[in-house]
Amino acid sequence: MSKDQYTFADPTALYSEKEPQKQHQPEPGLDAELTPKADLGEATYRGTDRLKGRKALITGADSGIGAATAIAFAREGADVVLSYLPSEEKDAQRIAGLIQEAGRQAFTVPGDLRDDAYCRDLVDRAVQALGGIDILVNNGGKQNFNEDLTTLSDEQFDDTFKTNVYAMFWITKAALPHMKPGSTIINTTSIQAYTPSEILVDYATTKASINTFTKALAQQLAPKGIRVNAVAPGPIWTPLQVTDGQPQEKIAEFGTQTPLGRMGEPAELAPAYVFLASAESSYVAGETLNVNGGSPTP
Ligand code: NAD
Ligand code: MG
Q1: Ligand with minimal distance to 288 CA
Q2: Phi, psi of 238 (to 5 degrees)
Q3: What is the pLDDT of the chain when averaged over all its residues?
Q4: 173-177, long-range: CB within 8 Å, 24+ apart, which pairs?
Q5: What count of other Cβ atoms lies within 10 Å of the Cβ of residue 295?
Q6: pLDDT tier at 128 (50, 70, 90 boundaries)?
Q7: Residue with the nearest Cα to atom 31 of ligand 1?
Q8: Local confidence band at 2 (pLDDT 50, 70, 90 cut-offs)
Q9: Which fold has domain 32-291?
Q10: Exposed/middle/buried for 41, CB within 10 Å: 0-12, 13-18, 19+?
């Protein structure tokens, strides 16, 4: 059974036909080649003008959680700038098409988040294209498992921090001068921030940093009328997992250890981003919204 956001359903039975299959793609991977296909809410997400006329910049918007969020934002009435790596053009074009089908504008700005110049240029181009930014979703991320710290390369450690932490800093810093009171920033952390896996030392550390960055910055910006929050996904079926995010043998049982007993789909994350982006969450700042299948968090 697939998810439909307005239909009463047993959450343990949703997507019960779906079984993650062992597979490997080179980084960053494509949704187009994921088996089974992830549910981005293409067929089901219905908007109700919660983001009418809003201007959103989303990183990692080509696939997975970022793509599901981009589709939902557009159907809620927002125009969207999509950031992603050049090799993800195929996925990005599909999402841009879905945004246009929703009657909104989509602008694609490929580039590498590890590059500070790209991050600043991305913001400039978003401001130009949209006429400002009032929703910033820092979502692009890198996750490569490593079983032994002595073999964790300096390059990987650096890349994981650049992609997950530095890019968030560079983009937020560049975007802030363009963000008016009422604007919202949403960062993507992870269950890994609280219960880190022994094979994700670098990644989990970046996700704890993102959580803390969110809570510190939220206090700084709340008096200025800008709310900063985070979403912390649990195990979600996206290209991240099959591009060495997990060892192959873990993929088949991906998500089964959660209280709901299954992995989640990107479509189940999008409503959390919509809530935090919209005025519905006007009294929520510095919060981490866990969407993780029921695993306890601090
Ligand atoms: P995904 O692979 O669909 O999205 C990650 C995106 O990050 C890629 O599409 C890519 O565009 C972008 N990216 C990676 N390196 C980049 C670089 N150097 N330059 C530009 N863009 C780059 O996977 P996803 O699972 O949807 O990931 C989205 C976010 O969710 C990430 O921050 C991830 O850490 C987080 N998250 C995912 C899970 C999960 O189980 N899938 C769990 C917790 C947190
Ligand atoms: Mg991608």
Answers
A1: 1
A2: -145, 170
A3: 97
A4: 174/119, 174/120, 174/123, 174/124, 175/57, 175/123, 175/126, 175/133, 175/136, 176/221, 176/226
A5: 16
A6: very high
A7: 141
A8: low
A9: Rossmann fold (3.40.50)
A10: buried
- pLDDT by residue (tens digit) across 97-116? 999 999 999 999 999 999 99
Task: Using alpha carbons, list the distances in angstroms from residue 66 to 3, 58, 258, 266.
Answer: 18, 7, 22, 8
Sequence-distant (≥ 6) Cβ neighbours of residue 183 within 8 angstroms: 133, 134, 135, 136, 225, 226, 227
CB 207 within 8 A of CB 250: no
Strands 106-110, 288-291: pairing is: unpaired
Cα of 64 vs centre of ligand 1, distance in Å, is 7
> If you average pLDDT over residues 144-152, what whole number do you get?
98
Pick the atom of ligand 1 nearest to 31's CA.
Answer: 3
Q: Are 239 and 31 in contact (CB under 8 A)?
A: yes
Give pTM, 2 decimals: 0.99
- Interval 176-202 mean pLDDT: 98
Q: Which residues are catalytic?
A: 203
Point out the ligand nearest to the CA of residue 211.
Answer: 1
Report how far residue 5's alpha carbon sits from residue 236's, in angstroms, rounded to the nearest whole number. 17
Distance separating alpha carbons of residues 217 and 244, to the nearest angstrom = 31
Query: Would you state the pLDDT for residue 5?
Result: 84
Give, for ligand 1, the residue of 238, 243, 291 to mutate: max count of ligand atoms closer than 8 Å to Cβ: 238
According to DSSP, the residues that pair with 80 across neighbouring strands are 56, 106
Q: Look at residue 36 in the predicted model and tell me its pLDDT.
A: 96
d(CA 162, CA 265): 26
The protein residue whose alpha carbon is closest to atom 39 in ligand 1 is 236
Q: Both ends of the chain: CA-CA distance in Å?
A: 31
* pLDDT of 143 strictly over 80: yes
Instruction: Using alpha carbons, select from 237, 259, 192, 230 the residue that is nearest to residue 3.
Output: 237
